[in-house]
Design brief:
The chain contains eight helices and no strands. It is mostly helical.
């Protein structure tokens, strides 16, 4: 009986993993082409029973996690190893692929978290685990294409071939513009602000979150020495 349960669990796990191959690219392109429609779909899905949510797509947190893992895997395969100052903290974080993946996950997830918190503040909602879930799920979807293409652009600009560097810079600029525009549209949908104000908030969110992440990385890479 236990052996049959294990087989059924493996069957479900295998089906779930294989379904990602079909639903991940479908979800990615839906987000890229129709960010506001995906955001509205997310809000509607959150009102459904948990086992009935996101039957046509991958769930937003899983989508973000898979995007981070995919970006990390591509970087492992094609990019040069990360250079960092060796000390106790950095060796724990950057000295292993698990630590580096965890650090990357935290950094990219900040885009979704800070945007979700800002949305709640502007819509004057009380902050609870339940109320945070909807805006976080919406912004987790939006962050997923940004993770993939910005990571690819980052690898391209670190090469030594000028055409690839220029192409990477263009890709990075394009996905940043897409992300800011998508954020602005979603901010406007949630807050009912005007277009100009929504774009201003989207740009501010993107710049401040990026500066925060670079500051964290700078501190970790250069000044992570533990006392003693």
């Amino acid at each position: 009986m236990d052996f049959l349960k294990i087989l059924r669990s493996l069957e479900e796990f295998l089906y779930e993993v294989m379904s990602w191959l079909a639903f991940y690219p479908r979800t990615l392109f839906r987000i890229l082409l129709h960010p506001i429609a995906v955001s509205k779909y997310t809000v509607l899905q959150m009102a459904e029973e948990r086992d009935q949510q996101f039957t046509e797509t991958i769930s937003p947190p899983l989508m973000l996690i898979l995007s981070i893992i995919l970006a990390h895997a591509v970087e492992m395969a094609y990019a040069d190893p990360l250079r960092y100052t060796h000390n106790q903290i950095n060796d724990m974080v950057f000295g292993s692929q698990q630590g580096l993946l965890a650090f990357r996950s935290v950094c990219f997830s900040l885009y979704a978290l800070i945007a979700a918190l800002w949305t709640m503040k502007r819509t004057r909602q009380p902050l609870t685990r339940d109320t945070l879930r909807v805006p976080f799920y919406v912004h987790a979807f939006l962050a997923s294409p940004f993770v993939i293409f910005m990571s690819l652009a980052s690898m391209m600009v670190r090469t030594e071939r000028l055409p690839i560097i220029l192409a990477g810079a263009g890709l990075g600029l394009a996905i940043a513009v897409w992300y800011v525009r998508a954020q602005a549209v979603v901010f406007r949908y949630f807050t009912k602000f005007g277009a100009l104000r929504s774009y201003a908030y989207a740009v501010a969110h993107f710049v401040l979150t990026t500066v925060l992440i670079f500051a964290i990385a700078f501190v970790m890479l250069g000044f992570g020495q533990l006392p003693g």
